[in-house]
Amino acid sequence: MQRVALLLTLLLPLTALAGAQKYEPLSASVQAALSRAISDQAPPKSSFLDSMEAIDWLTEMSRRLEKRIADRESRLEFLRAVHYEATRAGLDPQLVLGLIQVESGFKKYAVSSAGARGFMQVMPFWIRIIGRHDDNLFHLRTNLRYGCTILRHYLDIEQGDLYRALGRYNGSLGQAEYPNLVRGAWHNQWVYSSSRVASR
User: Which UniProt keywords apply (predicted)?
Assistant: First the structure.
């Protein structure tokens, strides 16, 4: 019985909750701003404030993610990219990890029934609207860049209301299930405070 429940939990993000952002017409200025935000530039060496913060965060998040992404180097590359793209978009990296957990179950090549792709389940119409025709939504940094930029856009539209922004992100605005699942994953699995801060 427990195995069946576990299996359903693992499959659920790919079937019932995967992203289906809805196309909404954008003004030319918003379209241009979003296009600039996703334009690909090589990231700096680190998005962390200092090397100790990087070591602490990567060590802890890697430990938590180990059962989902087995290969250590792939896991660290993923975590560095999440931290960079989330920070770049003004998002909490742990929130983004919670969203990815619910959207794709950390499956790089996840495709929803609506056609959303990758870790953050980005709908392909975003490429046409704000990207370049050859952008690959299964590419790690591209998927995270789009997903974080889109969530930031929805947060801006909703004046910082995370509940409504998450609803827009999933295409379920006004329904509690998805925002509550993301917030639950974020707070129960990914909340992090530095041991250096906690010991002060």
Answer: Signal
